Amino acid sequence: MPAPRLRSRSLRKVFRKVPGGRVSLHHKKKRPKTAKCGNCGASLKGVPRAFPFRMRSMAKTKKRPERPYGGVLCSRCMRQAIIDKTRQ
Ligand SMILES: [Zn+2]
């Protein structure tokens, strides 16, 4: 049975092969996924990969790029969206 602190589901299990040929179970911290573009699914630049509790204490300007659709669409999709809007 692992130690009580390792029984948390907020840790992920990693199976590591040790030099003796044995497989030992390591516990690693989970990492949040990168933010994705709402249109094409590409990972967004300038958006930190952090948990919500850390994002809450962050300044708004540090959480997304300061441009239209910043933190929602990637720059290429943002450009296309603006072109589409102005041509109607
Ligand atoms: Zn995109």
- Percent of residues in helices comes to 10-25%
**Ligand species:** zinc ion
| End-to-end Cα distance | 64 Å
Order of helices and strands: EEHHH
CA-based shape: elongated
- Total helical segments: 3
How many strands, what sense, and barrel or not for the largest sheet?
2 strands, antiparallel
Strand element count: 2
Structural class: alpha+beta
Q: Any idea what the radius of gyration is?
A: 20 Å
Overall average pLDDT: 94
Ranges where pLDDT stays below 50 over 5 or more residues in a row are none
Short description:
By secondary structure, the chain is an alpha+beta fold. It contains three helices and two strands.
What does this structure look like?
There is one protein chain. By secondary structure, the chain is α+β, with helices and mostly antiparallel strands. It has 2 domains: 1-30, no CATH class; 32-88, no CATH class. 24% of the residues lie in helices and 16% in strands. The protein has a two-stranded antiparallel ribbon. 2% of the residues are buried. The site of zinc ion has 8 residues, from helix 3.
Features:
88 residues; alpha+beta; 2 domains; two-stranded antiparallel ribbon; 3 helices; elongated; binds zinc ion
Fold topology:
Layout: E1 11-17, E2 23-29, H1 52-56, H2 60-63, H3 75-86
Antiparallel strand pairs: 1-2
Bound molecules: zinc ion (ZN).
